[in-house]
Amino acid sequence: MKTRIKIVVTDVDGTLTENPDTYKISLEAISIIRSLELNGIKTILASGNTIPMIIGLARYIGASGGVVGENGGAIFYRDRVEWLCNDQISQELEYIEKILSKEFENYIVRSWQNDFMRCSKAFRSRGREDHKKIIVEIKDLLRKKGFDNYHISSSRVAIHINPLGSLKSDAVEKILRYHDVSWEEVLAIGDSENDIDMIMRAGLGCLVKNAPDDLKRGISCIAEKDAGEGFSEIIRRYIGI
């Protein structure tokens, strides 16, 4: 096996799962990750979930490259957690959560994981509301309140609020420095808007089939299969495992 890829960075929900609508991790994807690790290619999990949840997942499936949690708000590497925000930002996020919970109570509900998040907040739709429309309205409200230093994105599972400088690509870059690996040596895989920043920075950035069509514009690496099967397809195609 000859490849310039030294690190694989992957989203979790909708990318490693059996399909876009389940939390069950694909057994095929787990097998692929373990093969990568056996061949010296580390895997970084990058998710909007809380850092303890993703640390646990990484350990149990055998991904040893490090962990990105809170949609880029925190990293874990070599038994150490680093937060990508300060106390002031954490307090602002608490205030923002209260504002959004009140102003958009008919459309979104705070995630239970917010109780365990420091540098990000997440909200789920109450129904089948269009995330794009809600995000536009949230951005407008936060701008009026003076909070224009936040990034709002959708993972299709949830709407994520992160301070600028605490996105997935920012967090991944910190871990890459520990590995002494450049972005050119990274394969990044995802399925949603909140994955695009790391996909665009990677030497090879890919989307699984279930990614929205508008995200696929300008991306040359797109799997023919959904979620975990698509992840496995991409690894086999470009790394040969």
Q: Could you describe the 3D structure shown?
A:
- The structure is a single chain.
- With 241 residues, the chain is α/β, with parallel strands linked by helices.
- The chain folds into two domains: 151 residues, Rossmann fold (3-Layer(aba) Sandwich); 77 residues, Hypothetical Protein Ta0175, Chain: A, domain 2.
- It has eight helices and twelve strands.
- The strands form two sheets. Strands 5-4-3-2-1-10-11-12 form an eight-stranded mixed sheet, with helices on both faces.
- Strand 8 and strand 9 form a beta hairpin.
- Helix 1 packs parallel to helix 8.
- The mean pLDDT is 95.
List the SSEs and their pairings.
Blueprint: E1 7-10, H1 27-38, E2 42-46, H2 51-61, E3 66-69, E4 74-77, E5 80-83, H3 87-103, E6 108-110, E7 121-125, H4 131-144, E8 150-154, E9 159-163, H5 168-179, E10 186-190, H6 196-201, E11 204-207, H7 213-216, E12 221-222, H8 227-238
Brief digest:
The chain has helices at residues 27-38, 51-61, 87-103, 131-144, 168-179, 196-201, 213-216, 227-238; strands at residues 7-10, 42-46, 66-69, 74-77, 80-83, 108-110, 121-125, 150-154, 159-163, 186-190, 204-207, 221-222.
